[in-house]
Amino acid sequence: MSHAVVVPDTSSFHAYPRAAVISVLIKDDHVLLVRRANPPDAGFWGFPGGKIEFGETITRAAERELREETSIIGKATGVLTSVDAFSQDENGPLDSHFVLVAVLCRWRSGQPHAGDDALEARWFALDEVDEARVTLSKDVAEVARYAAAQQQKEGCS
Predict the structure, then answer these.
(1) What pLDDT shows up at residue 66?
(2) How far, rounded to the nearest angstrom, does the alpha carbon of residue 90 sit from its chain's CA centroid?
(3) Among the listed residues 14, 56, 61, 44, the one whose alpha carbon sits nearest the alpha carbon of residue 119
(4) Quick one: pLDDT at residue 134?
(5) Distance (Å, rounded) from C-alpha 69 to C-alpha 92?
(6) N or C: which end of the chain has fewer CB within 10 A?
């Protein structure tokens, strides 16, 4: 018995994963999140982030995206983890695939103000995120917990 393999029409998108960053910033037991304005996950809360520009390092991309989406100045301290982000259209075929590199950032200055492609930007208590009191993008709670644990190990806040 043979199985038919459905091959997506790749003419309208990149047929390979694209690299992007998410900037994970935790300060005083609060995590900085943005409510996304654009698909995928429009209306959901997640970390500030976006595509890595050609020739840009992961840490520079994380700092830039943080500033563009929230007006916060931060210092990227290192890669935490990575997650896959898939989106599909209404009919089910894969529309896009991003590999999101989660970068831990330290707050330097500023207050959150939504910019770029964010509808809102604000601090959330870690327990709010953990208890999913808001609609979160996939993996946000897990990455926030992991970042908080890493910061605690390093003695940073």
Answers:
(1) 98
(2) 23
(3) 44
(4) 84
(5) 30
(6) N
Question: CB of 91 within 8 A of CB of 99?
Answer: no
Parallel, antiparallel, or unpaired: how do β-strands 118-125 and 45-46 relate? unpaired
Residue 20 half-sphere exposure, CB side, CA atoms within 13 Å? 20
Dist CA 143 CA 86 (whole Å): 17
For the CA atoms of the chain, what is the radius of gyration?
A: 16
pTM to 2 decimal places: 0.86
Rounded to 5 degrees, what angle do the CA atoms 101, 102, 106 make? 135
Provide the pLDDT confidence category of residue 10 given band limits of 50, 70 and 90.
low
67-92 core/surface letters (b: 16 or more CB in 10 A; e: else): bbbbbbebebbeebbbbebeeeeeee
pLDDT digits (tens, 9 = 90+) for 19-65: 999 999 999 999 999 999 987 788 999 999 999 999 999 999 999 99
Residue at 145: amino acid letter: R
Q: Quick check: helix, strand or coil at residue 58?
A: helix
**Cα–Cα distance, 113 to 92 (Å, whole number):** 35
